[in-house]
Amino acid sequence: MKRQILTLSAFLGLMGLAAISVCSDDAKKIAREKPVVPSMIMTPEVPKTVSFCGKLVDLTRYNMHEGIDRELASFSYLHATTMLALKRANQYFPIIEPILKANGIPDDFKYLAVIESHLDPRIQSPAKAVGMWQLLESTGREYGLTITSTVDERCHVAKSTEAACRYLKKAYSKYGDWTSVAASYNAGMGRISRELDRQQVDRSMDLWLVEETTRYVYRILAMKLIFENPYKYGFVIRARDLYKPLVSHPVTVQGDIADLAAFARQHDVTYADLKRFNPWLRDRKLLTGGRTFTLQIPDLQQLSYEQPNTFVHNKNWIAQ
User: Fold this and answer.
1) Does residue 65 contact residue 221 with C-beta atoms inside 8 Å?
2) Distance from the first to the final alpha carbon of the chain
3) Whether CATH 1.20.120.50 fits 49-235
4) In angstroms, rounded to a whole number, what is the distance separating the alpha carbons of residues 222 and 200?
5) C-beta atoms surrounding 96 within 10 Å
6) Is the dihedral angle over the CA atoms 175, 176, 179, 181 positive or is it negative?
7) Distance, CA of 53 to CA of 179 (rounded, Å)
8) pTM of the predicted model, to two decimals?
9) What angle do CA 87, 294, 268 make, to 5 degrees?
10) So what's the pLDDT on residue 24?
11) With 90 as the cut, is the pLDDT of residue 256 above it?
């Protein structure tokens, strides 16, 4: 009588395990002694140090090892969310990075934007923080953004990045330590300063804080580690998987626009595309209030994925 063969295959690229075949009798024995699982969950490797803003952060202390381990596991197994952030970075990092550099802010702070918003320029939190850098309305205005009934520059990628840089520079002038600056972005400078004084330590990493703020810097560090080597953490990406850069041309507007849909038609684009390329527009009209605004008009030739994406902002994202 022909014996049945049960084939168990598992693609575990990082483990390098080959497929195995066992006969039905052996399968029953394995099931009794050591059940075969259809897939395997690996804990991500925790490094001893990580570079942040040009300085090595020692992760060997128990709370720091466990803190970064938690966030690496979280981001590694939030597959869809982390993958989406990687794809969007191909569109938005080319905008964010030069602004950080021009303002003297370390490049690593782009990962703060990643954990704040997953690089979604329209996102709004339950606390009504808005945009890629998750700024409250009062904070946005304090750092130079226009927020009116028809305009919310917290959703303007370049301008909100400029505003975030102003905050970060102010915080660094206060603390002289970039990890404390990052913690203050979540908790506020007032709270971090008070706790440094009350707990009699010199850096935010040594503070006892609410869980959200305690996790905050580790989340930035974990996202940096994954973005620097996605394949190591299980993300297999090809160039065509990344989102295409946003290609557009600017149109300067000094007067009010009563109907943005009509304005879009005049420029041979849809109202929907006008809103997608200008997420800071918050109404069907634009009231300038005497200000000058620049609207981005999408290049119609670049809106299709019929020709797959070939632009790769960071070659480390691509599985070799």
Assistant:
1) no
2) 47
3) no
4) 27
5) 24
6) positive
7) 9
8) 0.88
9) 75
10) 60
11) yes
Token pair recorded at residue 222: 């974990």
Q: How far apart are CA 142 and CA 3, in angstroms?
A: 76
Euclidean distance between CA atoms 97 and 113, whole angstroms: 11
Answer with the residue of higher pLDDT: 189 or 302: 189
Residue with tokens 């505003």: 163
Phi, psi for 178 (deg, rounded to 5): -70, -30
Q: What is the pLDDT of residue 26?
A: 65
Cβ atoms within 10 Å of 30's Cβ, excluding its own? 15
Q: Give the residue extent of every domain in the chain.
A: 1-40, 49-235, 248-302
Q: How far apart are CA 34 and CA 30, in angstroms?
A: 5
Residue 55 is inside which H or E element, if any?
strand 55-58
DSSP state of 4: P
pLDDT category at 40 given cuts 50, 70, 90 is confident
Q: Encoding tokens for residue 252?
A: 């300067």
The SS3 of residue 114 is helix
Q: Please state, in angstroms and rounded to a whole number, the distance separating the CA atoms of residues 31 and 26.
A: 9
Question: Looking at 202-291, which runs of residues are DSSP E strands?
Answer: 248-253
Tell me if 242 sits within 8 A of 317, measured CB to CB: yes
Please answer whether residues 285 and 257 qualify as being in contact, where contact means their C-beta atoms are separated by less than 8 angstroms: yes
Task: Classify residue 120 by its DSSP letter.
Answer: -
